[in-house]
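ARCHIVE RECORD
Type: protein–small molecule complex
Small molecule: flavin-adenine dinucleotide
Source of inputs: curated submission
Record status: active
Notes field left blank by submitter.
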Amino acid sequence: MKTDVIIIGAGPAGIFTALEMIRRGSHKKIVLVEKGQPIEKRHCPKPQTGCCVSCRPYCHITTGFSGAGAFSDGKLSLSCEVGGDFPNLIGSAAAQSLIDYTDTIYLEFGADTHVEGIGNERDVRDIRKRAIQAGLKLVDCPIRHLGTERAQSLYTAIQHYLEAHDVELVFGWACENLIIEGETCLGVLLRRGGETREIRAAHTVVATGRRGADWLECLCAEHNIAHQPGTVDIGVRVECRNEVMEEVNRVLYESKLIGYPKPFKNKVRTFCQNPGGFVSQENYDNDLAVVNGHSYKDRKSENTNVSILCSHNFSVPFNQPIAYAQKVGEMTNMLANGHILVQRFGDILDGKRTWERELAQSNVRPTLPDAVAGDITAAMPYRAMINIINFIQAMDIVVPGFAAPETLLYAPELKFYSNRVKMDAALNTSISGLHCLGDSSGWTRGLMMASAMGVMMGRSLAKTE
Ligand SMILES: Cc1cc2nc3c(=O)[nH]c(=O)nc-3n(C[C@H](O)[C@H](O)[C@H](O)COP(=O)(O)OP(=O)(O)OC[C@H]3O[C@@H](n4cnc5c(N)ncnc54)[C@H](O)[C@@H]3O)c2cc1C
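STRUCTURE (tokenized, with ligand):
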């Protein structure tokens, strides 16, 4: 089969590429390949089973039309300071203008018009003052919160729009390899069970998300696609009562704080704050169970969760950040019998594990009931653990009570950003006809930035008419 543009991965990066090509009036034939299912067939059985049953062959939370976006919390970060390093590739002003434009598309497809985290200047000033005292930087980031339910209906509308505009959506097929001859990409090889299929195209766009990160790393090595080792973030998800987080939740909705705690001075940051939210588990294909967080528009818990992540970079002789983080995750899972570990902050400082019965003694009740009480420090590398402890104690100055003994820490929270594929500002890789987008390219790490990168790709492909 031959087409003009083939897009691998129907996450936000892939779908906004197709969407923008259509909006720009492109007549190119677009094939969008997704190894998961259309949005209406995605279903996580956890609400019925009460616990994660590690769906095979893939997890529906992260796989299928709209990628990790559909079942995500749908928090669109409207500042180019948040969501990845894409602005370093194209410049901050260009990235911000793309984000502003992409936001209008989200609004057209039904996003809530309300934006969190704007106004309240005097309250923000007070929080910033405390952040300065704590040695942390407060990043301003307005948030448009879709909520998990609304994200699903919005992406359903986009799926229908693409279908109505003759984008060929191929579900249930996984891209196995790229067809590369010399320095040119000629298309892709797809697999579904025992069947294989080749699609040739003038432009191949790989947008396989975080889950496609190690697959893309192998392809980069096999085909000599220029890349550099990426960053991995290793950390925990912290959960405390809404009362503790009340002020930052109200004023900022999402507090983006960055610090470089002593003695290592590595970058440590807060990420993905969910007021009234729920801690969740997601499973990667290799059975790795990692923690995440959701918040729903209408269903609220008594807790707020937020992740604290430490960035890890490696140089010589070791350059496999993904493998490193996976080992940390595996070890943590091992201690929790394949599940997520949870421990009270006070127990970490006291050098003891947390027992199940002790969880019931606190004000804060875990919103991930199948997390196993235990000892995170037995699996977390010393450097990451010290970074996390010192950061939480600094956060306590900004949010009094954050470092309370009962505060819950869940692990492993891992963010794989993939190798960073080397690209020019027009998103061309070192292989002619091959473009890499979104989280799998190593340049983005969030819904809005991945979508905006897709928009830019769409414009560029529409231009080559
Ligand atoms: C639970 C959860 C909550 C999140 N909440 C937020 C949030 O509130 N705000 C935010 O900004 N970000 C959030 N994120 C992150 C956000 O979802 C991602 O940054 C974003 O979806 C990345 O978009 P993408 O298009 O690069 O990749 P993805 O959304 O991961 O999509 C990639 C797609 O490619 C498919 N694929 C992978 N490999 C292949 C292959 N070989 N062949 C064919 N198809 C393939 C996958 O099935 C997937 O559908 C969350 C993520 C998760 C998991």
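CURATOR ANNOTATION: The mean pLDDT is 93.
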